[in-house]
């Protein structure tokens, strides 16, 4: 299993650019040129689309991509001059790029020409990739400045937030951001995060922790960073934390309870969960991480725990082939018949297809469960609005609720990922369904290019939040996640265009003086901020935006699967099911 490509995906070290300079009948041509060699890990790339206008009696412009590599620290200066060297047969032409650093983000000046003695003006417009990288740096720098060691940053009040989801664990943003920093080659920032994990990440805590959240954010983040870097500190922390989660499975059925005290090992169900039930999306979103814990530790117990969950689910009757969201960890029966592809259900389905892919397509049980579930979902929940928008409704004991949550917008990407491996007669059908759902989610972003927590399709409403309590946006990633998958699998340029709309909207509406904040109403152009920079914004939203504009072999979908927090885990060539049953 090779590591992901370490080069930046902007035609590393080379600039393919045609130059034509006509002066007094003299024609000069340039071809594929060596611009900047692959510098050491730790330099900073700036990329964009460059328009060079060359003067002469018959002058013209040429457009291409340009990348500049500047030493770390230079981009922090008030004024930044980047040097671009274009090699021609006549010698060297120097182009200077003028920009300024504002709040840690390099802003190049579009439309402004800097005339050089060579009469060579240069125009550079920043790329979406560049912006997502700089947004990540801005989010991290402010978290480090005001909240390092806390779980999340409150950017308006410039302090940290701990919350009660993680049972006393700290540094959720650190662990969630590790792999994103590494993938973006923000080396200085990555080393800051690594140092905190080494020196300050304490697992000896007591408190009420969400099994689900600790697994996807902490265990997933540590595992991914270990696989990316090979550094033992991340592996050892992941295994130690994984051990602390095992007591949650001590139930009559082996279905884990949702809450665990990481110190005492006591576990219980959420107080709001119906009749002491466990949540489908929580106990169904452990499989990827726990199989890797077994592989790295040599201890089959992690794999055995999640394989047992499969046994319980295969044994219980499923209404109309659907999986309700609440299951009793005592009896193994459904508690109520509420089905959702959004919150409470979502990532269970995602982990079925991804378990099959991660097993190198050996886990046929997961593939069958996914195929059967998707067939039932399409039959009973997929609907088309009066305006022609395809959506996935929620199901309450046979009665449909015609709404989609933002969380359900991951499903476009999931269905596309599964379609790649469907039979030929079904592949195009599922790709069309994935495209339609992704388009519907894009429609929910129509007003400010950011979408509400939930949107409805009733009483003439089309992909709009009709309740004030559903209008907020908390920096969620699911829509751009689907854009990334749809781009990778179709290369339809509209998905990159839609992603760029989100980048600009985040900058316009969510960026504040000291970080990024969710907003309370996506339908106003002067939003009120919620004062929370979610850790998943760094783990997921910015990573997916960055990957959307990368080459396909940067974290190739053939070699990596993303957990539901966007932490990449390698495709595994061990048949865990066979090894567990032996």
TrEMBL record:
Pathway membership, UniProt: Protein modification; protein glycosylation
Binding site residues for Ca(2+): 564
Disulfide bonds: 409-441
Molecular function terms from GO: calcium ion binding; mannosyl-oligosaccharide 1,2-alpha-mannosidase activity
UniProt EC number: 3.2.1.-
Any Pfam family matching the protein: Glyco_hydro_47
CC terms in the record's Gene Ontology section: endoplasmic reticulum; extracellular exosome; Golgi membrane
Active site location: 213, 346, 453, 478
Keywords recorded for this protein, A-Z: Calcium, Disulfide bond, Glycosidase, Hydrolase, Membrane, Metal-binding, Signal-anchor, Transmembrane
Catalytic reaction list: N(4)-(alpha-D-Man-(1->2)-alpha-D-Man-(1->2)-alpha-D-Man-(1->3)-[alpha-D-Man-(1->3)-[alpha-D-Man-(1->2)-alpha-D-Man-(1->6)]-alpha-D-Man-(1->6)]-beta-D-Man-(1->4)-beta-D-GlcNAc-(1->4)-beta-D-GlcNAc)-L-asparaginyl-[protein] (N-glucan mannose isomer 8A1,2,3B1,3) + 3 H2O = N(4)-(alpha-D-Man-(1->3)-[alpha-D-Man-(1->3)-[alpha-D-Man-(1->6)]-alpha-D-Man-(1->6)]-beta-D-Man-(1->4)-beta-D-GlcNAc-(1->4)-beta-D-GlcNAc)-L-asparaginyl-[protein] (N-glucan mannose isomer 5A1,2) + 3 beta-D-mannose; N(4)-(alpha-D-Man-(1->2)-alpha-D-Man-(1->2)-alpha-D-Man-(1->3)-[alpha-D-Man-(1->2)-alpha-D-Man-(1->3)-[alpha-D-Man-(1->2)-alpha-D-Man-(1->6)]-alpha-D-Man-(1->6)]-beta-D-Man-(1->4)-beta-D-GlcNAc-(1->4)-beta-D-GlcNAc)-L-asparaginyl-[protein] (N-glucan mannose isomer 9A1,2,3B1,2,3) + 4 H2O = N(4)-(alpha-D-Man-(1->3)-[alpha-D-Man-(1->3)-[alpha-D-Man-(1->6)]-alpha-D-Man-(1->6)]-beta-D-Man-(1->4)-beta-D-GlcNAc-(1->4)-beta-D-GlcNAc)-L-asparaginyl-[protein] (N-glucan mannose isomer 5A1,2) + 4 beta-D-mannose
Stated family: Belongs to the glycosyl hydrolase 47 family.
Function: Involved in the maturation of Asn-linked oligosaccharides. Progressively trim alpha-1,2-linked mannose residues from Man(9)GlcNAc(2) to produce Man(5)GlcNAc(2).
The protein, known as: alpha-1,2-Mannosidase
């Amino acid at each position: 299993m090779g590591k992901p490509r370490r080069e930046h995906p902007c035609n590393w070290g080379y600039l393919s650019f045609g130059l034509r300079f006509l002066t007094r009948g003299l024609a000069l041509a340039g071809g594929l040129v060596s611009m900047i060699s692959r510098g050491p890990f730790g330099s900073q790339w700036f990329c964009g689309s460059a328009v060079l206008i060359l003067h002469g009696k018959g002058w013209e412009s040429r457009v291409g991509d340009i990348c500049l590599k500047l030493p770390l620290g230079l981009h922090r200066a008030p004024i930044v001059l980047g040097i671009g060297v274009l090699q021609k047969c006549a010698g060297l032409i120097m182009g200077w790029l003028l920009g300024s650093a504002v709040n840690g983000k390099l802003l190049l000046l579009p439309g402004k020409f800097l005339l050089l003695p060579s009469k060579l003006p240069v125009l550079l417009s920043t790329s979406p990739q560049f912006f997502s990288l700089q947004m990540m740096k801005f989010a991290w720098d402010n978290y480090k400045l005001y909240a390092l060691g806390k779980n999340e940053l409150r950017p308006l009040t410039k302090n940290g937030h701990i919350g009660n989801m993680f049972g006393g664990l700290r540094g959720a943003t650190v662990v969630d951001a590790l792999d994103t920093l590494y993938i973006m080659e923000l080396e200085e920032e990555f080393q800051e995060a690594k140092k905190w994990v080494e020196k300050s990440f304490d697992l000896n805590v007591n408190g009420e922790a969400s099994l689900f959240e600790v697994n996807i954010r902490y265990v997933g983040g540590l595992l991914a960073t270990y696989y990316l870097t090979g550094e033992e500190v991340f592996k050892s922390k992941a295994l130690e934390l994984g051990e602390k989660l095992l007591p949650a499975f001590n139930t009559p059925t082996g279905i884990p309870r949702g809450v665990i005290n990481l110190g005492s090992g006591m576990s219980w169900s959420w107080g709001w969960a119906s009749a002491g039930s466990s949540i489908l999306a929580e106990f169904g979103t452990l499989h990827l991480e726990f199989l890797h814990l077994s592989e790295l530790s040599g201890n089959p117990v992690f794999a055995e725990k999640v394989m047992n969950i499969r046994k319980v689910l295969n044994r219980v009757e499923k209404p109309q082939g659907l999986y309700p969201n609440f299951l009793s960890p005592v009896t193994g029966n459904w508690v109520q018949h509420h089905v959702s592809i959004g919150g409470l259900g979502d990532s269970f389905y995602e982990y079925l297809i991804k378990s099959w892919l991660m097993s190198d397509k050996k886990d046929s049980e997961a593939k069958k469960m996914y195929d059967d579930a998707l067939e039932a979902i399409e039959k009973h929940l997929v609907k088309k609005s009066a305006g022609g928008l395809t959506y996935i409704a929620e199901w309450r004991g046979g009665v449909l609720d015609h709404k989609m949550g933002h969380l359900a917008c991951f499903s476009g990407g999931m269905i596309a990922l599964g379609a790649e491996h469907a039979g030929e007669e079904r592949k195009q059908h599922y790709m069309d369904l994935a495209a339609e759902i992704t388009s519907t989610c894009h429609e929910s972003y129509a007003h400010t290019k950011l979408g509400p927590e939930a949107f409805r399709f009733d009483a003439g409403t089309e992909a709009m939040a009709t309740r004030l309590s559903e209008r907020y946006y908390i920096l969620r990633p699911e829509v751009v996640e689907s854009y990334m998958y749809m781009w990778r699998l179709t290369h339809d340029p509209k998905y990159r265009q839609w992603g760029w709309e989100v980048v600009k909207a985040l900058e316009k509406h969510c960026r504040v003086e000291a970080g990024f904040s969710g907003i309370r109403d996506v339908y106003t152009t002067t939003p009120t901020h919620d004062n929370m920079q979610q850790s998943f914004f760094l783990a997921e939203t910015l990573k997916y935006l960055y990957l959307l504009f990368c080459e396909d072999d940067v974290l190739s979908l053939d070699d990596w699967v993303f957990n539901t927090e966007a932490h990449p885990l390698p495709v595994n060539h061990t048949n865990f099911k066979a090894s567990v049953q032996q």
